[in-house]
Amino acid sequence: MATQPPLRVLQPLVAPQHYVPPSARELRAQAVQRLQSGLFGIAAIVMVVGLANIINDRARQADARPQSSAGSSVNAAQGSDPLADIGVVPSQQPEAAPRAKAPATTVPPSVVQH
User: Model-level pTM?
Assistant: First the structure.
């Protein structure tokens, strides 16, 4: 055993080598890393879709519930809009506008020139 020279896997280098092919160990490590990142990505997508589904279900349940108190239904029927109340935006509900009265002083027809 000691008399035999060690078995060489690679040929001795004769010229500079610009590309070193990855070893079997490096290829396996790269494959494991790709597999881990792919599984992590799929798990993240499943969690985001599940969270969106939960939020959507809660919103549907909140819309389907009847109003629990009579006071809130009265406020909802009135449709109170704080910006419209202070006059920043026009009101959504048409209100009976007060009619303007005719001016107290009228111009006689003889003064008006045609």
Answer: 0.42
